[in-house]
Amino acid sequence: MTGGGGFLGSHIAKRLQRRGDSVCVLGRNKYPDLPDSIECIQADLRDPAAIMKACQGVDTVFHAGAMTGIWGRKKDFHAVNVDGSKNVIAGCLANGVKKLIFTSSPSVVFNHAPLEDADESAPYADSFYCEYPRSKAIAEKMVIEANGKAGLLTVALRPHLIWGPGDPHLIPRIIDSARKGRLMRVGDGTNKVDINYIDNAVEGHILAGDALKPGSPVAGKCYFLNDGAPVLLWDWINNLLERLDIPPVQKAISFSTAKILGGILESAYRVFNLSGEPRMTRFVAEQLATSHYFNISRARKDFNYRPVISVEEGLDRVVNSLLSPPEG
Questions:
Q1: Structural domains for the chain
Q2: Taking a C-beta distance cutoff of 8 angstroms, is the pair 68, 62 a contact?
Q3: Is 197 assigned a catalytic role?
Q4: Which of these is catalytic: 129, 132, 223, 305?
Q5: pLDDT tens for residues 179-218?
Q6: pLDDT tens-digit profile of 38-49?
Q7: What span, in angstroms and rounded, lies between the C-alpha atoms of 18 and 267?
């Protein structure tokens, strides 16, 4: 699988290994935290020869590797997420791989308006404020179009805001910003969003992969994954902070102001070629202020997806992991 050293990828790899599958992960680095029984190949998605070789003798590919983020150059996102996916697809087709399970994103259908209980009939967005969803939309289309070619079956999964103990992105970013007094509510605080606890995201990937067989309704489809019900974003954030003894979010900014500010900062970063990323972008403003949650009925029906960990239990686990002293 690709992205086997990442948060989602490593959990999928470990889950497959525990149930007895022979697992090989591909990534740019070495991953000593993975069990010794998992083979690690150090390679880049942008290297077609390396990907072609890695696909030899493989039955199933989980493609979770990607360049993520809210800011960056278009050519970098394209090279990793689009060209890298082309390389994975080509490797699968040339080596007789039977299954390709692609980790996509719900942001591929976010079209600058609230999405409430949206299902997979929602069209791809017409325009994007961020190169990550743009590149993922292109890659997802390629994966779906590859279904049925040379015996390859494909499926695209769209987990939203993966979180849990050990999450290196979402939770640490919230906590760090809150402790520095930089976390600011955008909008009126009533927006609902989906989140996807790590165990639930893994469950969805494993179930979809197992169901991906000739004649299955899963083949050539896209599926949203989440924890079964949306959360009030800012209430959920404040609940997390309160349990960690961190003051709740006090500052607020209107959605319109945040979006204007994001546009100004984006322009400044481009014109002056500034390093890092803007504290606010139009994409971030939309994500923090609007509702975007999705119906998972198709995943429930087609491959019996059921969240195995509730939001409440997931929050307990996260808090306990952060408050418990490290072993040793």
A1: 7-319 (3.40.50.720)
A2: no
A3: no
A4: 132
A5: 999 999 999 999 999 999 999 999 999 999 999 999 999 9
A6: 999 999 999 999
A7: 48
